[in-house]
Design a protein that fits this description.
Blueprint (H helix, E strand, L loop, with lengths): L4 E12 L5 H16 L8 E5 L11 H9 L5 E5 L5 H14 L5 E8 L17 H7 L5 H16 L3 H15 L13 H6 L2 E3 L2 E2 L8 E9 L1 H6 L6 E7 L30 H13 L8 E3 L5 H10 L8 H6 L16 H5 L3 H17 L12 E4 L1 E3 L3 E8 L1
Parallel strand pairs: 2-3, 2-4, 9-10
Antiparallel strand pairs: 1-7, 1-8, 4-7, 5-6, 8-12, 10-12, 11-12
Helix pairs in contact: 1-2, 3-13, 5-10, 6-10
Length: 396
């Protein structure tokens, strides 16, 4: 049995700071995806919501929240929370039910109304929560981690602050062409160097913002897609949701220490690289068969890490790949032609879904000025707290 499911429609609510509820954003994205698919809301048999932890009780029942807002019609619902990987897990949940024959057509929605500034821990005393501990005990906000990653790349691989700045320059140029991006302005390396230091060596323009926004997909079985007069639909060929293997010897949010490797050899493939490896294995393709990638650029330095984790280049050569122009529009393997989080900011439950939306538009040839010529296959990469891997392979 084929593991493919069809993507019939994509939709988004533009990213920004709009001062409204995540439900409103999600409904806009959902209706746009339904219209794009040519599917009527009453025909949807399953709604999967990627949860937000903000907005009170409805944030924890996002599937039902969106179903109610669109109008109760009897669809099955599911809700998924996996931090920044929530969107990919929601896609995987819908895919599983479609492949199991429990539904023919599904709507996947993620939306968020993020706080101003960097994410902070929820209130209360939670000493068993590593995220709470690293905030409260260590005072390590997210940019502190990003700065550590950047410093490690500089020490181990010889990356420079100028390399990091060029990631932002590239992504801002792409975001300027994307009507859904929050920041639609090109920036220069000089502007980045002049921005405030947040977590040395990273400056304000090296780090993504927090945003409101939403993204949605209409997925279906291949049989439904063919009956729906879509002879050659865009397909999701793989979804990776792997977890780390012991011992994990590289720092990953939210933990501020690694596992000991004294008695057990580290795995041959580290956690982040294993996310893509599982997706490639399931899809039956390798990184050399990709046309583009959308990755989780929480910071400019972290984007360079993903080049290596996706197998786009050997370890330590991410900056060289960037300098050679390979990851820019028109390069060998364009990365973040949507503009990435650098241009959008984080809308946590929506961002992995938004990455899939970009790949779908690209392989359809509908991306306008940021179109990757001849795009037929792409991968997303994301990562949630507490060991949530996230990668989706889209093909046509």
């Amino acid at each position: 049995m084929s593991g493919d499911v069809a993507v019939l429609g994509v939709g988004m609510h533009p990213w920004g700071k709009w001062g409204r509820s995540f439900t409103e954003y999600g409904v806009v994205a959902a209706r746009a995806a339904l219209a794009d698919a040519g599917v009527a809301w009453p025909d949807v048999q399953l709604v999967v919501g990627a949860d937000t932890v903000r907005g009170g009780y409805p944030g924890y029942v996002a599937g039902a929240t969106f179903a109610r807002a669109l109008g109760w019609q009897g669809a099955r619902v599911a809700s998924v929370y996996a931090a920044c990987a929530s969107g990919a897990q929601a896609v995987d949940t819908a895919r599983a039910q479609l492949l199991a024959g429990m539904a023919d057509v599904a709507l996947v929605v993620g939306a968020d109304a993020a706080p101003k500034g960097y994410f902070a821990p929820a209130g209360g005393e939670r000493p068993d929560d590593p995220d709470w501990l690293r905030f409260r005990v260590l005072g390590a906000v997210n940019p502190a981690y990003f700065g550590l990653y950047a410093r490690r790349r500089m020490a181990v691989h010889g990356d420079t602050v100028e390399d990091f700045a060029q990631v932002k320059v590239k992504n801002a140029a792409a975001g300027a062409l994307n009507p859904n991006a929050r920041y639609r302005k090109r920036v220069t390396a000089e502007e980045i160097a002049a921005s405030a230091v947040v977590a040395d060596p990273l400056r304000l323009l090296d780090i993504c913002a927090t945003s409101d926004g939403a993204a949605a997909l209409v997925l279906s079985t291949l049989d439904f897609a063919r009956r729906h007069a879509t002879a050659d639909p865009v397909r999701i060929r793989a979804v990776s949701t792997v977890t780390p293997r012991y011992p994990n010897t590289v720092l990953d949010l939210p933990d501020f220490a690694t596992d000991s490797a004294v008695a057990v050899e580290p795995p041959a493939v580290g956690f982040r690289a294993s996310i893509a490896a599982a997706a490639y294995e399931e899809a039956g393709i390798g990184p050399d068969e990709l046309d583009l990638a959308e990755v989780y650029d929480l910071s400019t330095a972290l984007e360079l890490e993903w080049y290596e984790d996706l197998g786009l280049c050997p370890a330590g050569e991410g900056a060289k790949l960037l300098r050679d122009g390979a990851t820019g529009l028109g390069g060998r393997i364009p990365v973040n032609v949507s503009g990435g989080l650098a241009s959008f900011g984080e809308a946590v439950p929506a961002q992995a879904i938004a990455q899939v939306c970009e790949l779908v538009r690209q392989v359809r040839g509908e991306a306008g000025g940021r179109q990757v010529r001849g795009a037929r296959a792409g991968i997303t990469a994301n990562q949630g707290l507490f060991g949530h891997g996230s990668a989706v392979v889209v093909v046509r």
